[in-house]
Amino acid sequence: MSIESIKRYHTSRRKFLQAAGGGAAAAAIAAKFPYFGAQQAFAASLAEQELRTVGLSVTVQERILNDFKEKSGVKAVSGKADIFPNTQTELLSGSTAYDCWETIGERLAAVVATEKITTVPTANLKNWANIRETFTKASDRWDLNRQIVGQIWKDEGQTELWMVPTVYNYDAIGYRPDLVSAEEASTWASLFDPKFKGKTGLNVDPLIAFGQAIMAMNTLGLLKVANPGNPNAQEIDEAAKFLISKKKEGQFRALWGDFGELVNLLASGEMIIADAWQPAVMAVKAQGVQCSYATMKEGYRGWAIGVSPITGTPNLDAVTAYADYWLSGPPAIAVSEQGYYSPTTNVKDSMPAEKYAFWYEGKPWVGAEERGIKEGDLRDGGSLETRAANVAYWHQWPDEYDHLMAKWDEFLSA
């Protein structure tokens, strides 16, 4: 549904209970776990709260949840890994099974309009002070609501967040360099190149797949869309025809949605070029199989994932603590070493200098080999600054969402 149709549909449904206000911060907890900070409005009984989260397997990781439980003192933690479309449908259907959704920026509009999530005040986040400017200063390249800084804030004063960003990246194509050249992989059009028929892969999320198809069609001279993340109805129609024709020709090995599935397909050689998450490329390399992440001529797809409290959760303080924990050292290091970026510079103070230099500054790897990374290797794509300057568009909620989904259903059934 479009934002307006979703909102109209749900106005007759009972609203979620509003989250109860938290009590004063617990001094003992703040002393034991300094990253919480005395300014946070934690209930004194944080130890009686639990955290039930849902999101991609990228962030919903047992080791991170267990570390959070140990450091925060919450009573219990549980996490479910699922793709964004599934969880969004579940939440819009009225599920109260979770305290927070580790969602992605472009899907905030739908759950904000239907009052399914509430905000986190930055005053309650001790670790917010060192957030990167990507999340506080708008670029003049895009309209405000078409970039992450225009999606996460409730207010212009930037005091309340619909989503506390925890992980972000600039997505590209993952490929097998023993079977595909760097030049061939450097364009989104390569996913649709007949040369790789039956060996390519698309992400199962339609908002991603349509954007990729449109960027490819721009390159091939079939379309001229200024913002591939927000095509109009006619552009969606043309992209759907293109996708359906490629599907009927047998172009795609798979529509993947799971991290492990992507890793296995690339490692086995069943798929040799695909829209990919960078950690999946790293995981393939760790198996001793050649795998690289392309530098895209058209530019990358920018996105950010973060923690959004579910409206009415009885565990709002635990959710706030979890969001703040993500901005501290341990989880930031964990995701950085998988190939993602932490939205806070706090990671620089927690990570060994030579590791930070490799993952964030484009410097050569120093030290013993780890997960297929050898002395002198460089991170694919270069430094964070270099990659951030080459973004084609940020993930966003399209104006013609209803139409796009109808065309995606046609593609799936073709």
List the total number of helices.
Answer: 16
Mean pLDDT: 89
Give a short account of the largest sheet.
10 strands, mixed
Number of beta-strand segments:
12
Order of helices and strands: HHEHEHEHEEEHEHHEHEHEEHHHHHEH
Kindly estimate the percentage of residues that lie in beta strands according to DSSP: 5-15%
Question: What gap, in angstroms, lies between the N and C termini?
Answer: 22 Å
Helix content: 25-40%
Structural class: alpha/beta
Radius of gyration: 21 Å
Give start-end ranges of low-pLDDT stretches. 1-44
Shape: globular
Task: Give an overview of the whole structure.
The protein has 414 residues and is α/β, with parallel strands linked by helices. 35% of the residues lie in helices and 15% in strands. The chain contains 16 helices and twelve strands. The protein has helices at residues 3-10, 27-32, 62-72, 84-92, 108-113, 182-185, 206-219, 233-248, 259-268, 278-286, 316-326, 329-336, 346-350, 353-361, 384-388, 401-413, and strands at 50-55, 76-81, 100-104, 120-121, 160-161, 164-175, 200-203, 252-256, 273-276, 292-293, 300-309, 391-394. The strands form two sheets. Strands 1, 2, 3, 6, 7, 8, 9, 10, 11 and 12 form a ten-stranded mixed beta sheet that branches. Strands 4-5 form a two-stranded antiparallel ribbon. Helix 3 links the parallel strand 1 (50-55) and strand 2 (76-81). Helix 8 packs parallel to helix 16 and helix 9 crosses helix 10. The longest helix has 16 residues, at 233-248. It is globular and about 60 Å long.
